[in-house]
Amino acid sequence: MASSLTCTGVVWAFLSFLCAAASCVGFFMPYWLLGSQLEKSVSFGTFRRCSYPVRDESRQTTVMVEQCGRYASFQAIPSTEWRICTVVTGLGCGLLLLVALTALMGCCVSELISRTVGRVAGGIQFLGG
What we know:
3 helices
């Protein structure tokens, strides 16, 4: 396999992939904020939540749903700030993955990444971060 990357470029490609993977896992995991509510352990992130209260209209009480899952809709995310955070973090993760996968392909394909493409990729990584 021919590579269009130097040794520094190969290290950059693998570190980029590890950082992008860590960012995506962090985005999808619901453990950003931990606490308790109604004597149950709860946690949530921008994209998912675990153990959340739901109003039971038949019994006129609030019950805890003890499972993890995504919000039912974009509007179900608790506040405008969290919605903005979800979009910005998701876009950042997408950009980081795009650059990381392109860099990894550059390890296998000759003349895929030139000096200019590497600089542009670095700028996109900066923007994604």
